[in-house]
Amino acid sequence: EMDPFFEIRSRSNSHEPRMRQANMVLEAITDVIRAQTGDSANNVYPPTAYFAALLSFLERDREADPAMVAAIMFLLATVIKQIKDAVLRSRYERVTALLFRVLSNHSEDVVACRWGIECSVYALTALQSKHWAGKGIGPKSVRQLFRALVIFSTDLRPRIRKSAQVVVASVLESSMTRTKTGWPPKAMVVTLQEVVGTDLMNCTPKDCQQAMFACGLLQRIIHFLPYPVARTIMNKLFSLAAKATPVLLIQAMRTAEAFFEPSEIKTDNMDQKTKLMADVVDTVLAIRPHRADTDTSIAYLRAIVKGVKSLTEASVLSGSGRIASAIMAISPLLLSPRAQVITGSTQAIQAIVSGCITPQSLISLTSSRALGGVSKLDEIAEAVEALLNMKYKTAWGNSFAIAAELFKVVDLREHKCVGKVVIALDSLQQGGLSPKERKSLDQAMLCCLRVSGVEAVLGVLPLDLPTQDSPTIQNGGSLSEAIARSRAWLLPILNQGVRSGPHTLSLYFEHFWPVREKLEQAARALPKIGKVTEARQIDAIAGGVWDCFPSFCYLPSDMLTAFSKYAKPWAVAIQNTSGRGRTHLCKGLAILVNSAVDAKDQATDEDLKRYMVDRKVIDQTLATASKFAKNFLSILFKAAMTADDAVMPSILQAVSAMSGVAKRKTVNNLFIALLKTILQSQAESGASEMSEAKITETHKLAEVAAACIRNLDSSSLQWVTKVFLPMLNDEDPLMQKKAYRVIKEVVGLHADYFKAHWNPISKSIRDALASCPSGVGKARLGCMEVLLPKLVDMLPYHPEALQVMGSFVGEVILGCKEPNHKAREVSFNLTVTLGKMLMESNANPATLRLLSKPDSSVKYPLLNEYVAMVCGGLAGTTPRMQGATVTVLARLVYEFHEDIPQPTMSKILKAVNVLLGERSREVIKAILGFAKVMMIRVNRYTLQPFLPDLINGICKWADSSRDRFRFKIRGIFVACANRFGIEALQTLVPQKHQPLVEHIKKEVNKKAKEKAERWREHQEDAKNRGEFGDMEEEDDYKGSGRGQKSEIETILYDDDDDDDDHDHDDGHHHASNRRHGAQEEMTIIDPNVDFLDQNVEGRVVRGGASGVRAAIERKQGTSLMPGIRIGDDGRLLIQEDDEEEKGRGGGMDTEGASRPRGNKKRRRGRPGGGGTPAVANRNHSGKRFKAKRAGGDKKTRETRVDPYAYVPLNPAHLNKRKANRAKKAFEAVVSAAKKGAAKGAKLKKMDGGRKHRARR
Are 170 and 123 in contact (CB under 8 A)? Predict the structure, then answer.
């Protein structure tokens, strides 16, 4: 049997008096038990024996020492946890009486009370409902103990109060499960009502401390009280809170919020609960907190949101009827001077609108409209509309966000009352909105478009574009007025919102197409009558209408309706228009066809919902597209010949889409005709020199041919290879690019054809390298990106494909050094992709015969062979090839460090160590990146034998000021220290570079401490963060990830600051340093600073990291460095003493010692930051040039103030008499300064004259 006091006995030798006292009492009680029952095994007795002995001791010693009683209660609280409820019920009167006596007699002893309260929870939760019943509504001792606990729950001592509140809540919760009514026993309820009611009645608005403590109890138990009792207590609480301090009002709001929390209590009287919740919500809504009181406002918002949501869940009719009232109650807080309150108010209204307006609640919200009255939804719309008037001008950005939330849950097509909000937004659009507010307004309209559709929005807000049908022109207005009053600002929003909202393509052809034609006609006619400005404006509006066209083409169902009906004008427009019109027409055609194809490829009906089409009509839509494909392809082919570079991409998209759905025979016939035209052009070029127009036409024909590859048969593909493979050696670089693109499409889209003709295609691409200029490298790499993975797939059937693939590896390696970023990215990705595919190829036994000597111990032999191919580049004759190979090896090691066998890894390390003797900067830079990868990814046991040679070879380049590899080497040392430990690094690094290792050690320790501190602060913030805890406004800009590097890119290409500096001249370099220093400067200001305060300047500290440190140290009242302190007003106080001067000098800057200076100047540090940090101890302080008798500025007898010293200003000196007195005090100082200056100028003049005569 386990000792219940094992932990207490184990701490018998503790220095805590409490534990020593508890062990003394425990030994005494154990002796008593031993005397009564005899010895036991291991001196351990059952918990019931200790429990009975402790109770007996409490009964006998009524006048015991408080410390003794505290120790007994501590032991009793430890052992009572192990006593069964049946035992406690059998002695409940004795136990409760003893606990009540302890709490009564020792109420001043915090320790005894705490343990007594903890014991009470076990004694009372063990009781059943019959123990609370009886003549006196429960036995006297039970009622007394419970009453004492309720009294202690409002005690002044925080620990006692919190413990009692937890115990009372636990007792109430446990008792509810043991009664028939489902509520706590009547005795408990009566006691709570008496004690809490008395505390609330005895409080006054000025003295409400007990009421605040009672709120803490109510927040835990309000769910367990019957509704009439809860109603009475809540009425008393809010009556007092309305007149008391804001602190009590905050607690009352938190109590209401706790009451609104969902409860697991099941009751039959839901109407009574709903009515009580409605009364509490109405009471909260009637309160108006001050706008500038942040804490009260936030508590108020929490209570309203929770109350309205809970009431809506309990009763849709009651809750939805109070949504408008809640919005109007919260609205004044949008004008608060506190940003946290404004953001919280916006979020609160959004939460109410989105959480309470549901499809079910909309029925009750619009029920009274059928009877001719004003519905609740009309009131909500009016409340939101009221936020858009001039009263809330400063909060319009937040009002627009609230309107957007309303548009998300209310459809304008079904509820026209929301239209007044849309009209209000339109009236504000022409106002002086800031860019942020305009963006918020556009988002609100975008939400309305996505939910309600373009037709519903235009029914409320017609575009009224400046045509002859415009209402302004019809009423006699001028064209300029019509342009100004048109709603052309909606066109960009329509372009974004149409594609994801309800729309049809017929709507565009019926409403937008005629208007666009009229606008273009007016734009062409107006310049003839001298209205050039109006013509440009109307042309821009017509362009906006064109921009909307592709957004109407995302529904596949429109293929059967609108496309069949308007295919002819669509095709004619492609022929007759040019520029932006043709671009959007072709782009819309490609989108419409591709959406139908994508819908057919969807696996389930759920996926088809996104396309708003049924599976039964998908085949019909594709048949319709195929029907018109021939005519459209002919038109597109002709349009491509006359298109400019801006229109050509959209035409090619349309050609690719239409050729994919057209009949194969049709596509092949058109394609053969296209090839004949290309061959004819080549024949003409052979006979005579081609004109520039003919060359351009041939280029466009090649691009169109690449777009048609998808739907060709094998015979046409043979013609493709016959025509375009020779073009890889064409003298025209642009024609080579087109040919590579065509071959790429053939290889990627027709796997069966490539399997049959892979050898001639690969050979032609390989042989074309000799005629490939530098500008075609990206296109060639793009072709190999498709070709090489296909060759890997061919290995099980054609083992010789491995050799063909190997012939391209060197070219891929060199691609990693291409100037074009995308080309480098393709090369790197291709190297990794090939490695992964070769790993998967090992699963096929047929591939193992490719190796002449397969090694059974190698897990992935093909990957090992591929790495060996790459290693061949280390023997290259140019630094470019060697550096590129090392970089590729670093990438492969990073990706496959666990899969490359250890012997291969060792060979790589040996070869790289040999290259450390090279003098090429390009090679060494690649090796440094490779070394860092090895430090981070490779197995330490594999790397450890080569570590000394690697570190020694790297250190040779640390002193090279010309190459500037210091930062990279430092990064390698840090990675080595993290992997092998700082002690191992110290043994490997030569003595010359040990200061750098010491600096790294300090930095690592410092960062570890800072990380632990940040984590601790984050945990504390997370505990204090609630629903509206993050009330600060969101930033306009959020990082999009553009320009962010991956982990491998960070390892290979970081720490290049010095490398960049090396590429510029000195003047440029110093300018960049100055800019860098300016960027490092920052302003550290208290977020709650009042800029109208005269002393605000003293609370601003300039500087980078040192500025942050200065601000922190100023708040803590500490000094920045010896002799420099921050005064109370924020200014620097500098004290120069002889002792301070003696303390300067000596020491060594370990970081500076490890940095080669090069040829650039070092910038002197400033105490506030910028430039090189100032160092207190310097070897060359100038002390030895100081005169021995120089003791600083001379002091006169009349004053004790040093000349030029800073003297804090005293407001008392503003008095004239005191000002004159202060002036006299400084007269001697000023006169002495003037004399000294004059004397110095005279000596300088005399000295200058002597030098002038000496030169003569």
Answer: no
Please give the pLDDT value at position 74: 87
Q: What is the pLDDT of residues 1116-1135, one digit of tens each?
A: 444 434 444 445 444 444 44
SS3 1179: coil
pLDDT above 50: residue 1041: no
In the structure encoding, which two tokens stand for residue 1014, read together?
A: 């940040």
Is the model more confident about 241 or about 1055?
Answer: 241
Tell me what pLDDT residue 515 has: 93
Contacts of 671 by beta carbon, 8 Å cutoff, 6+ apart: 705, 708, 712, 716
Is residue 1132 within 8 Å of 1101, Cβ to Cβ?
no
Q: Using one digit for the tens of pLDDT, what is the confidence trace for 631-684?
A: 999 999 999 988 888 999 999 999 999 998 999 898 888 888 888 888 887 777
Contact (Cβ atoms closer than 8 angstroms) between residue 956 and residue 999? no
In the chain, the amino acid numbered 711 is N
Which amino acid belongs to residue 1038? K
**Are the beta carbons of 381 and 424 closer than 8 angstroms?**
no
Asked if 858 and 901 touch (Cβ cutoff 8 Å), the reply is yes
Residue 1174 has a pLDDT of 42
3-state secondary structure of 294: helix
Structure confidence at residue 1114 (pLDDT)? 42
Q: Say which range, 61-70, 363-372, 1022-1031, 1218-1227, has the weakest mean pLDDT.
A: 1022-1031
Provide the 10 A C-beta neighbour count for residue 1095: 11
Could you tell me the two tokens for 989?
């690094």
Nearest to 659 by CA among 593, 757, 560: 593
User: Is 476 buried (19+), middle (13-18) or exposed (0-12) by CB count in 10 A?
Assistant: exposed
List Cα–Cα distances, 76 to 21, 55, 119, 232, 254, in angstroms: 14, 8, 7, 38, 35
What are the tokens at 68? 């003794």
3-state secondary structure 1013-1066: HHHHHHHHHHHHCCCCCCCCCCCCCCCCCCCCCCHHHHHHHCCCHHHHHHCCCH
Are 1082 and 994 a contacting pair, CB within 8 Å?
Answer: no
The Cα–Cα gap between 450 and 501 comes to: 4
Six-digit token string for 397: 């950005």
Contact 92, 123 (CB under 8 A): yes
User: Is residue 1115 scored above 90 in pLDDT?
Assistant: no
pLDDT, one tens digit per residue, over 909-920 is 888 888 887 878
Report which of 336, 344, 329 is spatially closest to residue 386, judged by C-alpha positions: 329
Q: What are the DSSP calls for 339-352, one per residue?
A: HHHHHHHHHHHHHH
Structure-token match 């059974």, residue found: 856
Residues 1142 and 228: their CA atoms lie apart, in Å, by 81
In sequence order, what are the residues at sequence separation of 6 or more whose Cβ sits closer than 8 angstroms to the Cβ of residue 921? 963
* Contact predicate 127/92, CB 8 Å: yes
Q: What is the DSSP letter of 916?
A: T
What is the C-alpha to C-alpha distance for residues 5 and 20, in angstroms, rounded to an integer?
Answer: 13
* Spatial contact of 301 and 1028, defined as CB atoms under 8 Å apart: yes
Q: Which tokens in the block code for residue 125?
A: 């939760």
pLDDT at residue 177, as a whole number: 67
One-letter amino acid of 341: V
pLDDT one-digit tens code per residue, 705-722 = 899 898 898 898 999 899
Give kind and range of the element (H or E) at residue 633: helix 618-642
pTM: 0.69
Q: Which two tokens stand for residue 702?
A: 């090649």
In contact, 818 and 772? CB cutoff 8 Å: no
Q: What is the pLDDT of residue 1072?
A: 41
Provide the 3-class DSSP secondary structure of residue 366: coil
